[in-house]
Every structure is written in structure tokens, then in C-alpha cells.
Design a protein that fits this description.
The complex is a heterodimer of chains A (about 110) and B (about 110).
Chain A: E1 9-13, E2 18-23, E3 29-37, E4 44-49, E5 53-57, E6 60-65, E7 70-75, E8 84-92, E9 99-100, E10 104-109
Parallel strand pairs in A: 1-10
Antiparallel strand pairs in A: 2-7, 3-4, 3-8, 5-6, 6-7, 8-9, 8-10
Chain B: E1 5-7, E2 10-13, E3 19-24, E4 31-37, E5 43-50, E6 53-57, E7 65-68, E8 75-79, E9 88-95, E10 104-105, E11 109-113
Parallel strand pairs in B: 2-11
Antiparallel strand pairs in B: 1-3, 3-8, 4-5, 4-9, 5-6, 7-8, 9-10, 9-11
Chain lengths: ~110, ~110
Amino acid sequence: GQNIDQPTEMTATEGAIVQINCTYQTSGFNGLFWYQQHAGEAPTFLSYNVLDGLEEKGRFSSFLSRSKGYSYLLLKELQMKDSASYLCADRSYNTDKLIFGTGTRLQVFP
Amino acid sequence: EPEVTQTPSHQVTQMGQEVILRCVPISNHLYFYWYRQILGQKVEFLVSFYNNEISEKSEIFDDQFSVERPDGSNFTLKIRSTKLEDSAMYFCASSVWSQGDIQYFGAGTRLSVL
């Protein structure tokens, strides 16, 4: 998978819901990851989708459509600490490497 | 909770010098990785390592780079002769298995080449 596309920046209000979209090339696809990265810190694993559908984990959910080469990360009940970059990454068959998008910088305002 | 640890957190070096970045992966993990992130850019894969061998490397990982697992716990990235464009955040990651498994990242080493 190459050419991961995701929006560069998004803003939202505390308590709201935000959806961060990601598209990728479908050939050889073998899994889609979402990581959170606060400025100057390590990427922290959020979710992994390999089958179509929605994976829910607390306030965060991730969706995958393999036929469309599309995923989104849904963040509910936003908190100020959710202000961070959200990195979409995919992996292809027969490779260990993750291919990252540029990340979406989310700013949560009070 | 187990974590990947990296040292130092910040390394400043002169162009042409050798640097060694150190990582201690999570103890039961078998696959190790190095990625880098130039300021304001994407996280990029450099190399993966399993069973004391490089399993995959990117075009960035040229002859100036090498990796080693000198003992049972450390995993190192060496840059033989640093260039200005090597300035970046270098992240180590590890996973239990390879494909289909989660890669856990360390906090990174910021390398500044002057």
C-alpha cells in the first residue's frame, strides 16, 4: 500500500465528535493502523483493522472498507488531551513495514 | 505496562561523525524496526530485523546505516558518517510477530546534525 491520503488539519470542540478519514491504495492490502502522536512524542497505537466494519474501543472507533480503500477514525466526547496528530498507516502482504500518511493534526478547543 | 525505551532522547553531532542510537525493545518481542521522521514530514520506514538478520530495508537505509542486536536486550542503529539531512527523530519499534501484529514505538531519539 502506498499513497495514504488524510486531511492535514482538523479542528473540533470539546465534547464533540470528529471523524478523520484516510484513503489508501488497495493492492496487496494487509491491515490498516491508526496511531496517535502528541508533538515530540512516540506514535501510540490506537486501532488495527484488517476486515471490513467498525471496531469500537471506548471513545475511539475505527472503520474499514477494503473495497473502497477507505478507513476512518471516530473520536467521541472529545477532550482537550485528544489534541494530537492522528496517523493512518497501512501494511501490504509479505512486508513488515508500515506506510504512514502525513498525519492529521487535530486541535480541540474548549 | 512494558514499553520500548530509547536512548539518548536527544543527540547532537557534527557532520561526518558516527552516531549510535540505542533501543531496548519489549522483552518478549521478536521483530524490531527503525523508522525516522524528519521535522514536519511523515514517519518513514528504515529497516526491520528478525532472528539477527535484516528482514527488510528501505532505499533510505543505505551503506551508511547498520543495525545490530549486540546482546539479548539492546537493538542499535548506527549511522557511520552523518549528513545534515540525517537530522530527524528516529523511532524504534517492536512487535511479537511480523505481519498482522501491532508495532509499539519508543519515544524516539532526536538527532541533530550540525
